[in-house]
Each structure stands twice: as C-alpha cells, then as structure tokens.
Known about the structure:
alpha/beta; Rossmann fold; Alpha-Beta Plaits; 2 domains; six-stranded mixed sheet
Amino acid sequence: MIQASGLRKSFGDFEAVQGIDLEVRRGEAFGFLGPNGAGKSSTMRMIATVSPRSGGDLQILGMDPATHGPDIRACIGVCPQDDTLDNELSPRDNLIVYGRYFGIPRRQVRAKAEELLEFAQLTDKADGRVEAMSGGMKRRLTIARSLVNDPELLLLDEPTTGLDPQARHLLWDKLFRLKQQGVTLVLTTHYMDEAEQLCDRLVVMDKGKIAAEGAPRELIATYCTREVAELRFGIGEHEALAHRVEGIAERVEVLPDRLLLYTDNGEHTLGEVARAGLHPVASLVRRSSLEDVFLRLTGRTLVD
C-alpha cells in the first residue's frame, strides 16, 4: 500500500525527514510514534500527497504522488488532527457535501451518509447542528467523513487526542472494525496504549529518522525487560541510592520521584532490594510497556 525508500523532506536548510525506508502492507494498522519534531507529520503529509517529497522514492497504492496525486487522493481517506467540520451544517449535510467533492452522485452519497451515520452512532444527531455536538461525536463524524469515498487507505493523525476514555475506546472499536473490513490504517498517536491496541506494526521516529520498527510486543522484547520494578524513597534520596541497586537489575533508571529497575522477574528483584537493606516507601511491579521503549529510544527530555 505504501513503499518508501530514502524518503526525505526539507524546509530550507532544515531536514525534517532524513532518508527513511518503510513499507505498509494491505489490511494492516501501521503506526508512527515519536516526540514533537520527529518528522511524523511531515511524513504523513507526503503520504497524503499534500506535500511534495524532497528526495527518495515514494509509492502510494503503486502510484507516484508526484505524477498521480489526484488519483491517489481519490482512493484514500484522511482524518486530520483537528476537526475541520462545517459547524453550521448538520452531520448528514457534512457527509453529503464532502461526498460531492468526490463526484459521488446525489442519490448514492445520501445512502452512504446514512450508512456512515449509523457506523458513527450519530443517527439520532443527523439533523442537528455540528457545533452542538460533543468532542467525541465530532471526532466520530470526522472519521466517518473520511470514509465517504470507500478508501482503500485511511490516514489518521492523532485520532483520539483530547477525548475522554469512553470516547477513545469507542473509536478504537470503530477503527478495529474498519481493519477487519480490509481498510489499511496508518496513524500517528501520542498514546502508547493506543498504539499497542491498534497497531500491527509501527515505527518510532526521532529527529527525522526511524529509531526502531516492528510489532509492539517485538519492540518491547527487544528494547526492554519483561517487567519493571518501581521503587519510591524519600524526596531527594533516589540518586544517592541508585548505586546500591545497580547489580540487582539489568538496567536502573533514576527519576526525581522513583527508581526504575528493569528486570525479567520483578518480585525476585524486590526481594533482592530488601536483602540489600533498602526499604522503599512504596514499590510496585508492572509489565514493560511501549512507553518504556519510546522513552528509551527518544529520551525523557521535552522537545519543543
């Protein structure tokens, strides 16, 4: 569905995407993770054929965006990060007007609008005004709108940002159903649990390059231990105590409010901590997550 080789994007002297290679297979959910400025949005805009590449090769649905941009755009759906709905129109009219941009006949687009309103669970809101709907409803309508042309490939930029947990899980269910129907999904997200839930494969981008690629569980197995033991001591004590647990775990990370001990057996590690004469105020053992991978690869320093 998507094949890139040595893909680059420059803005003047700044190279936002620095020669990446990737392949997205038909019917899978593929994710882009990375801190702000990593190059995710620039890559997505090139895939959406709204931003020309600066170098390398890119094929979307077997076509070159430089010469077949309109043909590609007719076959893909795009759900932008910000809702760009017509607030003065009803949900039904938003879908009908958008569908007409694709040249879909009126009778056909009206039937499609009803189908998508049901898919988005907005049938009872079909004739109200969009501006009166909740954030979750607007997000569902934006995703429904991106499906009006029956796309083979759906691009989603931060699809659940700002939504409450209930709305996020409802959208996850909708996206999972789309994948079951054969739609290829490509998404960016800052939610690590979302990436674990939705993505068959993903890449972690940092500073315009791909730092890692694989299935979520494969990345966790490669870059982390099976479990993490978290130890909390008194304020200001963590750095001073770090050397006393260095031999107990495979890797130790010092944070201002806790010590992270990366290990394959968390309970055993807590026992070793106690035998070393250390008595944390609080401790817990958890499964290693994609967030641990993300932070190890991209660091904990805030990027603006």
